[in-house]
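Appendix B, Record 12. Input sequence as logged:
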Amino acid sequence: MDKMKCRCCDRQQHSFLYKGKDRLHGLDGQFSLFTCANCGVVAVFPRLSSNEIEKFYPESYISYPLPVEDEKSRMRKLDRQFGVTKRRRKIEKHSKKRMGRILDIGCATGVFLNEMKSHGWDAYGVEPSSYAAGVAVERSGLNVFNGYLDEVDFEDHFFDVITLWDVFEHLADPNEALRIIKRILKPDGSLVITMPNTDSWERKIFNQYWAGWDVPRHYHIFSEDAIERLLRLHGMHIDNLISFTGMLGAIRISLDFWLQDRRISETNKRRLKKIYYSPVFRLLLYPYMLASNLSSRSTSMTIFVSNDSSSRR
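Logged structural output:
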């Protein structure tokens, strides 16, 4: 039963939600999702160790993209550059800084860090994948530590900004991560986290096929209330919550997962995928994406956090 303890609130009361498996890469393993009755965090069981989970992050993993300049399609290159520029501007707007020391935890191949570095920021990264960290160092010359956050000894109050883009849900021990972040972030520093939102409309639409579950890579999936409660325990407070990343991609991946269990021919599956990966589908879905963005109910939520519990949203 100790293994069933919630690592966010240390309680042992859970309710079963869904059976799960690796739908992204089709690797072997049976898992289950449970909701903590106390704090509402959804967690995957059994939890895999850092060694066991490594095989679920192959080099083809979706979050290990090539550098933007390697894109062959001009449209794709412009689209990706637009996205990473938007992230930088959101950081600068919230932190009210145009330069400083930034740490990206789970920086992958360093696309975001490279953007920050090229605009005057002193950029640091931590990345457990040796493949992704190698790309960040060799291709972009970034200062990236290949390993986990608790393995690198940063000075106290060292960073102006710390970011976790679609990474916090991958952390086996959120409390330990926040303790470290609290220590190395400046008192007036900013923490930015993008993560799946269990209150999202897509979670309710797709149920067990929702991309936000991403079993078994996502150890913990939060609602707005659940993550705010956890941050308060560490003397932090959410200043703002918005949705602006990954909306279309999450919907397409959720449709991919749903399609896996449909008893139709592979030919018809390919035809359906061609439809929802088309520019026309993107255009038709725009009103929905706009509404979910404005109401902060898309799959991903981005929270801007102050390192001071006296802050108020």
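The chain has a mean pLDDT of 93.
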